[in-house]
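Inverse folding, one chain.
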């Protein structure tokens, strides 16, 4: 019985770190996918309202009618099912207008630390 427990402990110590490493990479992939989805929804909304939404309102406009004209009368949303998602670390996605790299807008997750910048697994995810 003791030998079986030792073997199970050794297997867990070998497999455990690999599983936790996959959790981090899956969160990064989830954030990339969600940011792309948000960016696509903004592109559709942009066609309806005739321009890029303001950074402080843009993501909210995906699920709520704008309160300013002419966007309020041109809005044909909601453009997402349900509420706005948070990133896999529980932080809201950020809309930056103008975007990064010459884009008209970018959707950003600041990663696990929730702060701008970072490197490696803590780097910002930008779409």
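Residues assigned per position:
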């Amino acid at each position: 019985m003791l030998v079986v427990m030792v073997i199970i402990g050794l297997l867990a110590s070998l497999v455990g770190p690999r599983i936790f490493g996959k959790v981090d990479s899956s969160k990064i992939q989830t954030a990339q996918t969600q940011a792309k989805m948000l960016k696509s929804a903004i592109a559709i909304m942009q066609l309806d309202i005739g321009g890029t939404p303001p950074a402080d309102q843009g993501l909210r406009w995906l699920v709520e009618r704008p309160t300013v004209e002419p966007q309020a009368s041109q809005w044909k949303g909601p453009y997402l099912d349900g509420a706005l998602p948070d990133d896999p670390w529980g932080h809201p996605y950020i809309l930056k207008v103008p975007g990064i790299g010459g884009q008209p807008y970018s959707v950003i997750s600041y990663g696990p630390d929730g702060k701008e910048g970072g490197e490696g697994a803590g780097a910002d995810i930008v779409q």
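The CA atoms of residues 13 and 99 lie 44 Å apart. DSSP finds two helices and three strands in the chain.
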